[in-house]
Specification:
extended; 146 residues; metal ion transmembrane transporter activity; membrane; two-stranded antiparallel ribbon; transmembrane helix; mainly alpha; 2 strands; GDT1 family protein
């Protein structure tokens, strides 16, 4: 190894930016021919990765709208609204009443969701929601077979 390349590696050891990397990211080896220590600095990884990427409001709106819209097609709420509209012969009044009810229940869901999210981690919320959905599925299955 030439003297120029040895001095280049030694300058890496003394640079202050090299001290910013953790010891696990620095690999120190010895050059057996010249007894000079050489520091190899691997590419740094961020100390804290931003796991929650910000999404645009239109993306959040579209995802929410499509998810709720597809989940509610043929739902008992939609069927109840259909029956009330047919019986009352006042479709606009039924529409306004059902829309107000759905907005109110959605508001309660959002407020409860933000309150829970401020107190629990997202992983805990996901696990709890999964367990609750599993329990509801088992109760519905039990109702069908009995």
């Amino acid at each position: 190894m030439s003297a120029a390349s040895t001095s280049q590696y030694n300058s890496v050891e003394t640079r202050p930016s090299a001290s910013l990397y953790s010891k696990s990211q620095q690999q120190i080896t010895e050059n057996l021919d010249s007894n000079t220590s050489i520091t190899t600095v691997t590419s740094p990884s961020p100390a804290v990765a931003d796991c929650t990427q910000k999404q645009s409001p239109i993306t959040i709106f579209a995802t929410t709208f499509l998810t709720i819209f597809l989940a509610e097609i043929g739902d008992k709420t939609q069927l109840s609204t259909l029956l009330m509209s047919a019986e009352s012969h006042s479709p606009w009044v039924v529409f306004v009443g059902s829309a107000a009810a759905l907005i109110t229940t959605s508001l309660l869901g959002v407020l409860l969701g933000s309150w829970i999210a401020s107190r629990l981690s997202p992983k805990t919320v996901e696990k709890a929601a999964g367990v609750m959905l599993l329990l509801i599925s088992l109760m519905l299955f039990w109702d069908v077979i009995s």
